[in-house]
Amino acid sequence: MPSVEEVWAAFRAARPDVAGPEDGYTAWHFCDNQADADELVELVLAGRKRATAGALWSYEAEGEELPQPGDFSVITDWSGTARAVIRTTAAEVVAFDKVTEEFAATEGEGDGSLAFWRDAHWAAFSRELEGMGRSPSADMPVVCERFEVVFPV
Fold it and tell me: What angle do CA 134, 95, 148 make, to 5 degrees?
């Protein structure tokens, strides 16, 4: 089981053309449950998932910086095993009901449709925001991040 630190070091050694000497990273897994987290990282490795979305309110509540183009992340499965290094290529904040069908397809989940994206993310945001005393809304701000895999494990 490769650790986050081991994968980051291997990435930096193997891809000096991509990772500069001062590049930092974050490490995280998708979603709030094992089944989804493990499924989504497999979609990343298969090349189907090239985007992700999060509630802006969660970023604010956690004091977390928004993703920026050029940011690196080590993606893990639910158990914390490092599976890939990704680089953010674009990020924007849009209202939930303004997320496009193209973005939903780039997220690569379910059947790739906007309807699936809305249903799945409404449910996930409902669970996530409940702990903050908030509920999702059609106009709630969503951080839409696009990425590329720069080092699959």
Answer: 105
Residue 107 has phi, psi (to 5 degrees) of -65, -30
Asked: is 4-149 a CATH 2.40.30.20 domain? The reply is: no
CA 138: distance to chain centroid? 21
**pTM over cut 0.85:** yes
The residue written with tokens 């080092």 in the block is: 151
Q: How many CB atoms lie within 10 A of CB 58?
A: 16
Tell me the HSE value of 13 on the side-chain side, using a 13 A CA sphere. Answer: 6
Annotate 4-48 with three-state secondary structure: HHHHHHHHHHHCCCCCCCCCCEEEECCCCCHHHHHHHHHHHHCCC
Instruction: Read off the pLDDT of residues 16-41 as tens digits, 9 standing for 90 and up.
Output: 888 766 678 999 999 999 999 999 99
Q: Is 27 exposed, middle or buried (0-12, 13-18, 19+ CB in 10 A)?
A: middle
Nearest to 144, CA basis, from 53, 60, 72: 53
